[in-house]
Amino acid sequence: MIRVENISKSFAGTPVLRNLSFDVPDGRITALLGANGAGKTSCLRIICGLLKADSGRVLVGDADPALDPMGARRQLGVVGDREGLYERLTVREYLEIFARMQGLGGTALAEALAAVREELELAALWDRRTKGFSQGERMKVSLARALVHRPQHLILDEPTRGLDVLAVRLLRKTLLRLRAAGTTILFSSHVMPEVAELSDRVLVMAAGQVVGAGTPEQLAAETGCSTLEDSFVALAYGQRASAARVEGEPA
Amino acid sequence: MNRMWSARAVIVGLQQMAPLLRKELLEAWRDRRALLMAVCFSLMFPAALAGGTIFMVKKQSEDVTRLAVIGAERAPLIAEQLRSPGLDVEALAEGSPRALLAGDYDLVLEVTDDFAERYQDFRAPRLYLYVNSSDTGSGRAQRALQERLGALQQMVVAQRLSARGVAPQLLAPWRLETRDVSTPSSRGALILATVPGLLIMTLFIACLATAVDSSAGERERLSLEPLLVQPLAGWQIITAKTLAVASLGWLGSLLAIGALVLLMPLMPLAEFGIQQATTVAGVVAMGLVLLPLALLVAVLQILLALRSQSFKDAQTQLSILQIAPVVLLMVLDMAQIKLADSWQLLPLIGQQQWLKGLLVGDWVSPLWMLAGSAVTLVLVVMAILVGARALQRESLLSAS
């Protein structure tokens, strides 16, 4: 479980997160839904220990990343937004190095590598250097790196950005399998259909705060809207913006 | 007990760092551009040095001015008196000054047809000196000839005055003589004095591309963040990068030392009065004293490159900044400032002094080498800790 308690964060005096609190339960897929600049990436970076919150506390399992970053990082698998690979390494070398950094070795390492190779359909890429990989291939390798040490918590920042349909389907399949295995999954996105399809629970973020939480159906019921998109607009931008859209557009 | 625990923690930390070190080494050694740069520069400077030395010796052996005197029979005294070891005088009845200068001669002196007649009548006969000022070597030869002609003229004046009962000293209140104290040996020593500076520069250049790639390059390619979320401390990340960068820099300087040692027998150093006295132990010591410096150069370049926003930005900044220490070394060397022994504790200056001594087989104090290397290593550790803090800077993360 990931717990975020009253965290605030400012950059150069501009508040990005304001007293943000939420829980991410085990065995569920939770989506952070927000427009660009809503504070999603900053929030995820604080959970990973890459940024320090000005106030508040985060728990990844039993570890606070601000106080015990190594403890938190051992329980985390992270796929960042638009992250790069090491282009002079093969996929096998890349994954082996990251698995070893997470403390794997011997038989456990060989089994972990074989598992991600199988699960993420990496056989054809296995001994190729990552230079020139497509966006989908890069995502598969990044996801394999995040999963190779079987972390309890998986964090993904805009994971479907730039992916083709096959890559999105593989990602979806992988996340559903991990959910079934009890992994805590938190991902950020601003793509409504992806959030509606993948997540068990949606946290709507606006101006550094959670302004709505629940299943897509619960959010629709709460706002009186028929779609997640309308619910999001109503929650993130207020009823006026939602009404303006509804009135201004033909049904 | 506490100290033992700390040492144990460092050893465990280094073991945890091993996979990252492997990654950094694989990336560094597979970067063909960086490798090519390191190898090329390392081999280029010893080759240039060997070529330069051979050229200097050749030039020195050819240091005889060839002078053609047209119409020498009209002034036999001049042609005769000018003959000397450094001046090869060829007496010619006639010839074209331009053609002679274009040929084998450095200078052409033409004695006018009425020289003898005017000389007898004390009517200052004319001599024409033809030079090719575009020939860089002609200036020195011209000055030497003018000095000789001046001296000859003074001798004639003195004889004429003496014949008339006038003391010639009255016309010359003093005599200025220029003496060139440069010896072949001192010129040769100057050549070898540049070698330590060039070896250190090789180190800087061989480290550069990898240092930039593993820091600013990693930021630019957005591959730094996945690394920062691994259970590794900042010091482990900086240490692994430093070791990988230093390995390439050290290889560069070892290649340069190897090439230099192999080429030295081909260099005509004996012509400069230098006996090659580099021993096997000296060569090993040269490699060893450069190792701590390679680590220091690597970590400092990484720290500077981490501050840059892009690969190109880092490369430009480092290219400019790395010139400074090398220029400092060369200025110190050219100014021939005598430094106290304690200056050997300073990085760069220490290594330069030791390399200079080891290269010509002089005795170098092992104690000073150990103490200076220890100081360099302490600075490496301090720089790694600074780098670990730099990795916590929020500005290192990409804007999303």
TrEMBL record, chain A:
SUPFAM superfamilies xref list: P-loop containing nucleoside triphosphate hydrolases (SSF52540)
SMART domains membership: AAA
Superkingdom field: Bacteria
InterPro entries according to UniProt: AAA+_ATPase, ABC_transporter-like_ATP-bd, ABC_transporter-like_CS, ABC_transporter_ATP-binding, P-loop_NTPase
Keywords: ATP-binding, Nodulation, Nucleotide-binding, Transport
Pfam families noted in UniProt: ABC_tran (PF00005)
Any one GO MF annotation of this record: ATP binding
Domain ABC transporter: 2-232
Family that this chain belongs to: Belongs to the ABC transporter superfamily.
PANTHER family: ABC TRANSPORTER ATP-BINDING PROTEIN, ABC TRANSPORTER ATP-BINDING PROTEIN NATA
Name this polypeptide is given: ATP-binding cassette domain-containing protein
Organism phylogeny: Bacteria, Pseudomonadati, Pseudomonadota, Gammaproteobacteria, Cellvibrionales
